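step: validate -> pass
step: tokenize input -> pass
step: predict -> running
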Amino acid sequence: MSTESTKKADSWKAGKTSFTEDGIRMIELEAGSNVIKKLREDWQAFAAAIPPYPGGFEGRGIVICAGGLRYFTCAWINIHVLKKTGCSLPIEVWYTGNEFTPEVIATLTDLGVTCRNANDHSKLPIDGLALKPFAILNTRFKEVLYLDADNICTANPEQLFENETYRQGGTIFWPDIWVTDKNNPIWKIIDASDYDSIEQESGQILINKETCWKELNLCMYFNEQRQYYYTMLLGDKDTFRFAWKALQSPYYMIPKPVAYCGYTNKNDNSFFGLSMAQHDPIGNILFIHRNLLKWDITAPGETIWKEIRQFKADARQKVINGKYINTPNGLGFNVIDVQGEVETLDFRHLLGDLEKECLQILNALRDSPMYGRYLLHTYFCYFKPQYLHNTN
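step: predict -> pass
step: emit ->
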């Protein structure tokens, strides 16, 4: 083999991610055959060495990852809304290092929430998105409803644990809006070819660890090898689904497509989708995932949940456009414009004053002295990192 051919076989060079109008997620990725082969052999060797489920976990509970001011703000609203739904499940909030102050921990503890520092459970630092599978693996709960910090429940989610399909298979996943391009090297790496299967949106995951211990550990491995898998899978979100696929394990994906929640832009009548709306197994909206405009940068009294756009049943075409919107102050944000065979629903007709209630919780948090002190702590940590070494 020539030197040039060897270099190509050993190459791994990532480019842009793009989305086609018919809902396919594309990546520009030069992936050499030797790298693909090595990745396949490595995950297979890891999977073969995963020990059996160790036991020691008990009960059901909710896990939220929420380090730092942005995600603490979101989690605070999330937790208060959960309690308003009547949910009685115990809650763990996971963070790393000095992301929480002792005062923040004490305040969450007063709400009945347990705070867990990932650094207390790992000799190596757990960075960013990898905290999600790590927290699920290491929580004290055997059955876990994982929620992103910015994911609001519209009703008591405890019902999910009683779903018969979950009880049989040990997991429920929720759909994203895209499918993975068939030329993505992940298909060769895990030796699968169901190219039309929908991608996963991991803002909510239901898992029985005893049933899915091996799959969950492989998911964690994919996150540890993020320099490869995040490139192919757009971060952590699909590492769960592809871990199950790699092991040829069945999983249950909610059949109703994700909808988008937002408002119609008066300037050009386009739709600004800023939150994902996910459904329960019988098709009712159970989660509003405020993923594109989070609570920490929501202005006082700002409302964005006016409409929900969802695909009609058996829609033949799905046209989805992602836009970046510039604002007068130079700050911008992403929105999703859902087009094609869609129907528009009135948010308040379906979910009442949920957004208003969330804003009231947000305003009360911002008015608290604790929040002001935490904001200052976060500011110092960002602009003066040595500040951390001089605090307790």
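step: describe -> The mean pLDDT is 91.
step: cleanup -> pass
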